Amino acid sequence: MSASEEREHWELLPEVGLGPLRLGMSPAEVADALQVPGPRERVGGPYAQEDFADGVKVFYDAGRLACVALDAVTGPQVSLVGTPLAGRDPEQAHQFLLDYAVEYGSCLLYTTDGSLSLTDLGLLLRSQQVGDVRLSRPLLVKEEWLESEYYRDRLPLEGT
């Protein structure tokens, strides 16, 4: 799928979920919500990571969904007040989030890798290298991970 092709659209439910996924789901519930028998791949590392088709990666904490990361190009599109968050120029996406934070009184946080988060939404905006350009990619992260300096500095860094 290219950035210009139609992609699935997922609703952001602040601090609750993204599309059909809800924070706190078990791996079986995640697969069921995505209507697949299971992940394409399970990845080792500090988080129990599962990669699904269509650019969806999930991360678990103690067997419960703690983070959803969407690919900048192949993942579902997520919008915030009608503005797409995936597959954009990262500087423009960051500026949009800064403007949103001013207008709606959201709490901002920069992570050690320079990603911007609206902590009250559980939204973290990372960038991803795609060919010769970098594009924005949204992550939904459980509140405890954004509030804890330990977890915040060790959030899933694949693709950044």
Overall description:
With 160 residues, the chain is α+β, with helices and mostly antiparallel strands. Helix content is 19%, strand content 37%. It contains four helices and 13 strands. The protein has an eight-stranded antiparallel beta sheet with strand order 4-5-6-7-13-12-11-10. Strands 3-2-1-8-9 form a five-stranded mixed beta sheet, with no helix packed on it. Strand 10 (108-110) and strand 11 form a beta hairpin. The longest helix has 15 residues, at 90-104. The radius of gyration is 15 Å and the shape is globular.
- Radius of gyration, whole Å: 15 Å
Question: What's the overall average pLDDT, rounded?
Answer: 89
Question: Helix/strand-derived class?
Answer: alpha+beta
Helix content: 10-25%
Poorly predicted regions are none
